[in-house]
Design a protein that fits this description.
The protein is an alpha/beta fold. It contains eight helices and six strands. It has a six-stranded mixed sheet, with helices on both faces. Strand 2 (about 70-75), helix 4 and strand 3 (about 100) form a beta-alpha-beta unit. The termini are far apart.
Length: about 220
């Protein structure tokens, strides 16, 4: 049988696709609702934080049901109360243990802790403006978005190193998820404030052998 150049190219492409290893899938879940979430208060990584409320527990159950067939081999979580509570529900559904990683904790808001962002703008107008525009800016006694990005990158890379070509669930926080999206899409710093993952929502990112990350879905509600 004589093969045309087109046939040969098609066969080579099919072989390359068949030989490509599966991606590492990072399924990122924002914790469920808390009283401070509902009040839109800053609830940062400098303190253990509030527990889930009734809505938050329902968020966790819905996320767990949505991920039951995801094939995840591990659940990693921020050590804060609300993330651990969410992660435990998901891990129970998946039949795995929760592994805590401090680098997945929420941004430390310093003196803004417990304030709404409206209050932050009123009391700290210059600091609030700078924090939204410059990755190096930080709340008073708090953490800059650049510092968050550094530890999130470490945490993300640890997951890939520990579970290459597998699926891992990470339960974390709003600013952390925004930072992941910013790192993936390489957007402007101001874009971080324009991304709003809802409590209990699910975001999925993939990476392959080339180390490039792609955003496959954002903020899906179970």
């Amino acid at each position: 049988m004589n093969l045309t150049r087109e046939d040969t190219g098609r066969d080579a492409g099919a072989h390359a696709m068949a030989a490509a290893p599966p991606p590492t899938r990072l399924i990122v879940v924002r914790h469920g609702h808390t009283a401070m979430t509902d009040a839109r208060m800053c609830s940062g990584g400098g303190v253990p934080g509030p527990p889930l409320n009734a809505s938050g527990r329902q968020d966790a159950l819905q996320a767990a049901a949505a991920l039951a067939s995801a094939g995840a081999v591990a659940v990693v979580a921020s050590p804060m109360i609300r993330t651990l509570q969410t992660a435990e529900v998901i891990a129970t559904e998946l039949g795995v243990e929760v592994h805590e990683d401090d680098d997945w904790r929420e941004c430390d808001f310093g003196r803004w802790e417990g304030l709404t962002f409206t209050q932050v703008r009123e009391r700290y107008p210059e600091a609030a403006s700078r924090w939204l525009r410059f990755l190096s800016a930080a709340p008073p006694d708090g953490e800059s978005l650049a510092e968050v990005a550094d530890r999130v990158t470490r945490a993300r890379d640890r997951v890939v190193g520990s579970h290459p070509e597998r699926t891992v669930v990470v339960v974390t926080h709003s600013v952390v998820i925004r930072s992941l999206i910013h790192l993936t899409l390489e957007g402007a710093p101001v874009a971080i404030g324009r991304v709003q993952p809802a409590p209990g929502s699910i975001t999925e990112l993939h990476t392959g052998a080339d180390g490039e990350w792609t955003l496959h879905s954002f903020g899906a509600r179970p």
